[in-house]
Amino acid sequence: MPRKFTPKLCACGCNEMTRGGEFLPGHDVRLLGAIVRRVGGVVKLRVIVEIAINDVIVVNQISNGD
What pLDDT shows up at residue 1? Predict the structure, then answer.
């Protein structure tokens, strides 16, 4: 049986309707890019988020086997 989609406004703020998801295709990336530009870059965004969540964001590095 096909799923029913409940249209809703795209979370990026474009005022377009999705087919049930939070974003239209690619609009999550558009929003992320706008946020990064607004705060002045990825490093500044990281600092803002770390302050907001009171925790450090750690990026897992891939080991080269050493």
Answer: 65
Report phi then psi at 17, rounded to 5.
-95, 140
> Dihedral sign, CA of 52, 55, 56, 60?
negative
- How many CB atoms neighbour CB 47 within 10 A? 14
| Strand partners for 45 | none
pTM (predicted TM-score) = 0.77
> Can you list the alpha helix ranges (DSSP code H) found in the chain?
27-39, 42-53
Q: Quickly state the pLDDT bin for 65 (edges 50, 70, 90).
A: low
